[in-house]
Amino acid sequence: MSELVARTGRLQQRYEDGYRLIAGCIPFRYKTVKDDDGGRNETIVEVLMINSTGGPGLLFPKGGWENDETAEEAAEREAMEEAGVRGDLVHFLGCYPFKSKTLQDEYSPEGLCRAAMYALHVKEELDSWPEKSHRQRSWLTVGEAIGCCRHAWMREALEKGFSKWYDDGMIHTLPRKGSS
Fold this sequence. Notes:
By secondary structure, this protein is of the alpha+beta class. Helix content is 20%, strand content 38%. Strands 1, 2, 3, 4, 5, 6, 7 and 8 form an eight-stranded mixed beta sheet that branches. The longest helix is centred in the C-terminal third of the chain and has 16 residues, at 152-167.
């Protein structure tokens, strides 16, 4: 079995109009729970968040979108590297600009970033993944996740992107893998 390794460095990073381009996702699953009366089963949606290595609060997987991949491939890669999950990207949630104190470099001296965010329907949780030693996974309801987001732009992606898509019926809008 080959060992999974996270990409590092910024040599392949994409930039556009002074923004470092980021790709990420909101991983989700359907969970069946009993209603409060213990009678009927109800299906709820949970989202997966990971701890921040730089302080309190929780995050969604995200990272630099590199020159040799599409935004979708970058989002899937980051989900595997940071959260240890694989699945299907089913909807584009939008682009969210933000300013990073830690991502300042010669191409984006002000730390401007633009994140392309997707909904990822989780199909597999890995027992081992590249960042397992310093990441913890937490499955939360959307309401719980809104209260735990470390960054305002991620909360906006959850509230305005994911929650709107949820309210609209969670229709798959991206091509399914293996289909033409």
